[in-house]
Amino acid sequence: MITTCQDTIEIEMAPEQTPSIEIALNAVIVSVVDSTPYVLTLPDLKGRPTMDSLPSGPFNPLRHRTFEIGLREFVHAQTALPLGYVEQLYTFGDRGRYTKKEADEPHVISVGYLALTRQTPESQQMLDQLGAKWRPWYSFFPWEDWREGKPEILQNHIDPLLNQLCRDTKTSNTGVSGFKLKDRYQLSFGAGALDWDEERVLDRYELMYALGVVPESLRDGRTSLSSQDHVRFGCGLQFDHRRILATALSRLRAKLKYRPVIFELMPDEFTLTDLQRTVEAISGHHLHKQNFRRLVEVGQLVEPTGGTSTATGGRPAALYRFRRDILKERPAPGLRVSRN
Amino acid sequence: MITTCQDTIEIEMAPEQTPSIEIALNAVIVSVVDSTPYVLTLPDLKGRPTMDSLPSGPFNPLRHRTFEIGLREFVHAQTALPLGYVEQLYTFGDRGRYTKKEADEPHVISVGYLALTRQTPESQQMLDQLGAKWRPWYSFFPWEDWREGKPEILQNHIDPLLNQLCRDTKTSNTGVSGFKLKDRYQLSFGAGALDWDEERVLDRYELMYALGVVPESLRDGRTSLSSQDHVRFGCGLQFDHRRILATALSRLRAKLKYRPVIFELMPDEFTLTDLQRTVEAISGHHLHKQNFRRLVEVGQLVEPTGGTSTATGGRPAALYRFRRDILKERPAPGLRVSRN
DNA sequence: TCAAAAGTGTTATCCTTACACCCATGT
DNA sequence: ACATGGGTGTAAGGATAACACTTTTGA
Fold first, then answer.
1. Quick check: A43 and B3 CB within 8 A?
2. Which of A130, A312, B227, B230 is the least buried, fewest Cβ under 10 Å from its Cβ?
3. Contact check, Cβ <8 Å, A19/B62
């Protein structure tokens, strides 16, 4: 039995020509204010509107033992935001996708992170100084917000365009492993007999990217498959940052349902309606009030503070706080709840 | 409004002293034969028993556009295995953990991938030549296989040891964010009033690593918190490969329940009992036969081939095949099913 | 005829969904 | 008094979990 396998690997690692590699840690920093989810962005230096970026920092293994430590440090240094929950999303090896590079330019690997936080007056000052902005998450994905019913942009622009591309023989075979464009479209956008699945944010974005109808497609040098080149959906971002943003929304929408992460986005005290509005803001659709409340109750996720809030004009609402101990008592449930 | 932020970042990326960085793609290649899950390992060059490794290859962005393409190519070149389903697991920035390095040694980032496949006679030849071996997954995590009831190693060795460490004041505060050792132990191992959660494979491994009771802890220079230094649970692997293996098992156990990935591990034709045994092999516990069958049926995951199999000695079993079209028809369910 | 494994029918229970209604406050 | 939002009880339907039983083969 010959065991040359490892040799081969080890030898290949050194001498083969490789570009230098850098790790970029990218943070999708999320907060929710008044039922609107926001993500933190930094301005493009040249002021190009679709070239803003996510907070991003290089990973230096000499300074930080792990990615997460490095991420927390540069976010803290840049924004002074109190990061609570942090989770790795995905690592993209093709950050610039098909963008051509200079020969000596390092290759950048994107490690995406999701971080949940709250906006505070103190951090706001710092952010203003930097030009950092909280931008509505749905400004990047206007088709993802179904709280007021099916979004207009889907109904009037995306659906007709994609339907046309499905019929078009030139594009209808755009797919992977036996899936035609029509299959991908129906699965990710819930067309045909299927329902809209709010978790397929990334699938939808990737399909639109592949079809050349988002700004990034052109920038990366893809030929647009659409005859309507002017159709560009949602605000673009630098590099692959909108792809990371889509990954984050997919993941957060899924996670909500089985882990109590929503409380990372809530203030210390909140009403049950606040809580519901925040879940709705992330998941992108309305929830059933009574069922939502019962789920929170049986899950023992919250406890009353005793106080009440009269902010909304009607009957005062009881205030609650998150029962942190639930995490020690049992595998804490999330808030999977019926739509309305 | 001053917008120096991006400058700061961009400037930092170049001049600060950084070690050169390499990307290692690591594949957890899984197959199941006769109700035993196997993972493919490569032998240590020096024959040290706990220093075998996962198939691993460097990522060279000049040769491969994406991680997955690179991974598929080196796995194909090394093993000739027909990889079907492939999924990124996690990226670890601290591959060697606390291992000390030479100053000029490159820093290696581990990108873990899960790949599901089948053993074939052709690929077996190639694997034998390389010295690659299919090793039972549970030889690395003997406490994870509950098919024959609570594993002996848990009952007689791990539980007593961890209970003792929980009582010990020196170690009982080992934890993160307000979690004492006892909390972590109870949550991950299902001690106390909690149930065993088969998905918490990584939590369990990480806890044991932190407590210094797996071989990797010592190798990485951690001081063992256990007074019984001789206690070493499960076979070790090179670098952080067992951590990647634990991540893979966690992920696969979770994924089984909501996506029909189990069929990637099945031959083209199989009996329903085969299918159930395979799910049990991965999830690590017995399933309820009738409920399993009904779930498969209502999910329309399989269709009869018409043939039967008489391999087992009793009544011949009907053969089925996976209905691939289910993937196009609706969000295909997995096999979440009641334990038995 | 019996062992071994395949395959089916049925019920009790819990969870999900949905409906409708009452309560406390400000104006 | 009435508008506004907060808060609750309960019944129908469906999914799940568990029960026991019949069928078909080989030895």
1. yes
2. B230
3. yes
Residue A253 is given by DSSP the state H
The answer to whether the CB atoms of B324 and A43 lie below 8 A apart is no
SS3 letters across B146-206: CCCCCCHHHHHHHHHHHHHHHHCCCCCCCCCCCCCHHHHHHHHHCCCCCCCCCCCHHHHHH
pTM: 0.92
Place of tokens 């993802």: A144
Q: Is A283 helix (H, G, I), strand (E, B) or coil?
A: helix
Cβ of A339 near strand C (under 7 Å)? The reply is: yes
Question: Which is nearest to A197 in space by CA: A209, A188, A185, A186?
Answer: A188
Straight-line distance from CA B315 to C1' D23, in Å? 8
Q: Which residues contact B189 (CB under 8 A, 6 or more apart)?
A: B154, B158, B159, B162, B196, B204, B207
* Whole-number Å distance between alpha carbons of B66 and B317: 43
**Which nt has its C1' nearest the CA of A294?**
D8
Check CB contact of A146 with chain B, cutoff 8 Å.
no
Angle between helices B241-255 and B201-210 (to 10 degrees): 150
* Angstrom distance (rounded) from CA B184 to CA B137: 24
**Which chain A residue has its CA at the smallest distance from B130's CA?**
A3
Distance CA B162, CA B182 (A): 9
Q: Going along B34-170, which residue ranges are E strands?
A: 36-41, 56-58, 86-92, 107-116, 133-136
DSSP conformation class of B142: G
Provide residues 286-305 of B with CB closer than 7 Å to any strand D atom. Answer: 288, 290-291, 295
Structure tokens belonging to residue B167: 């009582």
A67·B93 Cβ contact <8 A: yes
Q: What is the pLDDT along chain A (340 residues), one digit of tens a residue?
A: 333 333 333 334 444 567 789 999 999 999 999 999 999 999 988 888 778 999 999 999 989 999 999 999 999 988 888 898 999 999 999 876 656 566 677 899 999 999 999 998 888 988 998 899 999 999 999 999 999 999 999 999 999 999 998 888 666 666 666 678 999 999 999 988 888 999 999 999 999 998 888 888 877 766 665 555 445 788 889 989 999 999 999 999 999 999 999 999 999 999 999 999 999 999 999 999 999 999 999 999 999 999 999 887 789 999 999 999 998 887 778 887 777 7
Q: Rounded distance, CA A319 to CA A274, Å?
A: 10
Judge if the beta carbon of B340 is closer than 7 A to nucleic acid strand D: yes
**Angle at alpha carbon of residue B28, lines to B22 and B31, rounded to 5°:** 160
Cα distances from A103 to residues A17, A106, A312, B62, B109, in angstroms, run 12, 8, 59, 10, 23
* Smallest Cα distance from B312 to chain A, Å: 34
Q: Which residues fall within 8 angstroms of residue B340, CB to CB, at 6 or more apart?
A: B285, B286, B287, B288, B289
Domains and CATH numbers, chain A: 15-139 (3.90.79.10), 143-234 (no CATH), 258-329 (1.10.10.10)
